[in-house]
Amino acid sequence: MNGEVSQICRIVAAARTALKNGTDYEFTPLKYEGSITFNFCDRKKEGGPLFRAKDPADWFAHLKKEGVENIFMIMGMKVARQQLGYVNHAATTIFVRYADNTVTRFVPHWTFSNETNLWTTVYTESVAEGAPENDPDFRNETSLMIATLTDIEKLAEELGEEKFAKTFKKAAGILSGDEIPAFKAGAVPPQIPEDMMKFYVASDMADVFGAMGSWNDTGAAAAQSHNRSKDYVTLSDRLVCGIRLMTMYAVNFPIK
Question: Of 132, 196, 201, 243, which has the fewest beta carbons less than 10 angstroms from its beta carbon?
C-alpha cells in the first residue's frame, strides 16, 4: 500500500480506537518515517496562538482538549492512477469534527531528508468550508470489490500477467472468507477491529498501482501489446475506486 495512505490509516485508526474505547492513543511509526507533526489552524478565527503538535499522540491530545467529536479519513476517487506511486499524490485527508460542529481537514506533505534518510510529514489544518451537517456513511462494498477483482484477474490472465492475476485472486479470496495471511516482519497494521481487518488486508494486497514493475507499468504495456488498453483502463480505474472505498470502510469503523 502507498506509504502515505498507510500512515493516515494508522493515525486515524489509532484515534478512532482511542475515542471508541476511552484508551490512550498509541501510534507506532514505520522504519522509514521520521518526524510527523501537525499544524493547527485558528478555526474560531479569534487570532489566538496557533498550536503545533510534535507527533500523532500530541495531535490527538490537543484534539481532545479542543473537544473532538469525530476523526475520519477521506480518499479522493478522482485520482491520477499513474501518479499513485509517487510522493504527495495520494489524495487522502484526515477530517476532524469538533464539538462546536466545525469541520477541519489535515492535509499531509511529505519530504525526504538526505541527512537522516527518513521521510518527514507535516499535516496542515484548514477549515472545511461548506462541510455537510452529517459525517459520511462508509458502506461495505464487498460484492462490488469481489466482482472487480474477478474481472481484472481474468484480464491479467489473458494478458499473460500471472503474478498480478494471482494477487487479484488472493485478495478476492480474503474477502470471500479465506484466511488472512500473516503480516510481514516489521509491518504495523492499523488498529482496527478484527472483523474489519480482512477488508483492509484485501485492499492492501490489491493495491498494485506503483511505478516501475507495477500494474501501472507492466500491466499497461501488456494491455497495449494485446490491443486491450480500453479494458485495462476501465478495470484499473474500477479497482482503484474499489480499493479506496474498502479502505475507508475498514479504517473508519464505527466508534459509537
Answer: 132
- CB–CB of 18/255 below 8 Å? no
Provide the percentage of residues in the chain whose pLDDT is more than 70: 100
Give residue 73's pLDDT band: very low, low, confident or very high (50, 70, 90). very high
Angle at 32 between CA 27 and CA 38, to 5 degrees: 50
The whole-number average pLDDT for the span 145-164 is 98
Q: How far is it, in rounded angstroms, from Cα 186 to Cα 207?
A: 19
> What is the per-residue pLDDT across 23-35, written as a single tens digit (0 to 9) for each?
999 999 999 999 9
Task: Dig out the grid coordinates for 242 from the structure.
Answer: 474499489
DSSP letter for each residue of 84-105? TTSTT---EEEEEEETTS-EEE
Q: What are phi and psi of 237, to 5 degrees?
A: -65, -40
Question: Residue 122 in contact with residue 39, Cβ under 8 Å?
Answer: yes
Q: Residue 70 pLDDT > 80, yes or no?
A: yes
- What does the DSSP assignment read for 135-177? -------HHHHHHHHHHHHHHHHHTT-HHHHHHHHHHHHHHTT
Q: Helices 142-158 and 229-251 meet at what angle, rounded to 10?
A: 150
Residues in the chain: 256
Say how far apart CA 25 and CA 9 lie, in whole Å: 14
How large is the average pLDDT for residues 59-75? 97
Instruction: For residues 170 and 254, give the distance between their C-alpha atoms in angstroms, rounded to a whole number.
Output: 27
pLDDT at 170: 97
Give the whole-angstrom CA distance, residue 196 versus residue 223.
34
